[in-house]
Every structure is written in structure tokens, then in C-alpha cells.
């Protein structure tokens, strides 16, 4: 998986959908693995539902991925311990 800097909800959703597909999981498989309601992944991906704290945590856990907060400088570039890094 790439390590993109995600700045909005739609980008987050797109990355999670891409990761689900990379792992070969169908939407139904994701519902099962993440222990979320049948059809919920389809509704999330279609934009009928939005992630809440419980469903986001369930999907991240099912995909074995994590979110990391990155401090940005005044130009929107990432900083690590006060040093600029390539975006």
C-alpha cells in the first residue's frame, strides 16, 4: 500500500476501497471480516452512509491498516519532528 497524505473524506474512502480490492475482498467479505451489518460496505462506498467512529475502526482493523496524524507546515507540507519531509 502507498502511504498517501489524505486530506479529505473522499480521499480516505478511495484509499480504503483500493486497499479492500488489493486484498481481494468483496464488499460482502468486508462486512463479514469487519463485523459490520450486511450491505454496510456497499452503502459506505456508494456514499449513502459515512464512517462513524465504530465503523471506521472496524474497517481499519479488518484491512490491518492504521491512520497516522501528520503535522503540516504553513504550506501544507508534512513535518516530522520539526523537519520537512518529501510529500
Series of H and E elements: HHHHEE
Give the CATH class: Mainly Alpha
Instruction: Give the name of the CATH architecture.
Output: Orthogonal Bundle
Percent range of helical residues: 40-55%
Number of separate strands: 2
Please give the largest β-sheet: 2 strands, antiparallel
Strand order in the sheet with the most strands: 1-2
Please give the radius of gyration in angstroms: 15 Å
Write a brief structural summary.
The protein has 87 residues and is mainly alpha-helical. 45% of the residues lie in helices and 5% in strands.
Question: How would the blueprint of this fold be written?
Answer:
Layout: H1 9-22, H2 27-33, H3 40-46, H4 53-63, E1 79-80, E2 83-84
Antiparallel strand pairs: 1-2
Please characterize this protein's 3D structure:
This protein is mainly alpha-helical and 87 residues long. It has a single domain (9-84), classed as lambda repressor-like DNA-binding domains (434 Repressor (Amino-terminal Domain)). 45% of the residues lie in helices and 5% in strands. The protein has 4 helices and 2 strands. The protein has helices at 9-22, 27-33, 40-46, 53-63; strands spanning 79-80, 83-84. The chain has a two-stranded antiparallel ribbon. A hairpin with a 2-residue loop joins strand 1 (79-80) and strand 2 (83-84). The two termini are 15 Å apart.
